[in-house]
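Hi F.,

I've been meaning to write this up properly since the lab meeting, where we talked about keeping a consistent format for the predictions we share between groups. The idea is simple: the sequence comes first, exactly as it goes in, then the C-alpha cells exactly as they come out, then a line or two of notes. No screenshots and no reformatting. I'm using this chain as the first example so we have something concrete to point to.
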Amino acid sequence: MIMARLRVAALLALLLPLGTPALALDAGLQVDGTAFVLNTDDGRSLHGADLIGAELDLGDGSTLRIEGVRQDPTDPSGDILLHRLSVRMGDGAWENPCEAARDGTREAFPLAGSWDSEGRFHAGGRKFAISCTSGAQAKCVRFGYKPWKAAADGTALAPLYESCVHMVRADYCGDGKPTTREGTMIDIFDRHGIQASEAGADFPFEAGWSPTGAVCVAHTRIAENINLGKLALSCPRLKDALGTDCNEIRAGALGALVFNRSR
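Output, unedited:
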C-alpha cells in the first residue's frame, strides 16, 4: 500500500496534447470513491481516465504515473475504477508496483482515509491510500464494502470495510498483524445484503469480525501460523471467545458486522 497526502504539489505534471497550457500547481487534487479528481483554476474537473499520464509525487522522492484507467468488470455498479500504475525506479525505469491478484489483475485505486498504528481505519480526511488489487483493502472494496457508501438498508459501509480488512488478513486481534496465507479460500457473508454465504458444510464457521478485529473465533485459518492456544496468549481479550461456541449467532451478539467460513 502506497501512502500519500492530498496536496497540491502531488500533481507534478499532466501529459496533455502538445500545445495545451500547463495546469497550475495550485489546482486541488481529491479522491472521489476510487477515482482521482483534479479541480483546476480554470474551472475544469479532470476525473478518472482524464488523468492518464499524470505523475504524482509521493512525498518520499518516488514518482507514480497513471498509465491507464478502466471500470472494474466485477463491479456491476461501475463505482470502482482500476488504475494501471507505474513507479519510477532509481535507474529511471518505470515498473508496475503491484503484484498479481488472484484474478490476474495488477491494478490499483486510491481510497480516501488512512490506517493508524493501532490498526484502525479513519475514513475521509486529507489522506488517501493506493491499494493494489492483490491487497486486503482493495479486495474488500471489490467485495462490495465501499467505505464511502451505504448498504441498501442504509447502514454505513465504512465499519464493514474495516471489519473486512481484518477478516481478509486473519488479523484476529485487530492490531495489524496478519496470520493468513496468500491464496487461502474463505467464504464471506454479512447481514446487510452485500455478501451471502455460498459454502457448504465443508467450510466450517471461522470467526465474526468487527472494526477492531475478531469478536470470537471458532478455529484459526492457518493453524501453522497461529492456533487457538497461541491466540489466547497473544490476544487476551479473545481468550473467553475461542472455540466451538463461536458461531454466527454468538458473533452477531458480540457485535460482528462481517462473518466468514474457512477450512
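Notes:
The longest helix spans residues 158-169.
The first strand starts at residue 2 and ends at 5.

If this format works for you, I'll send the rest the same way.

G.
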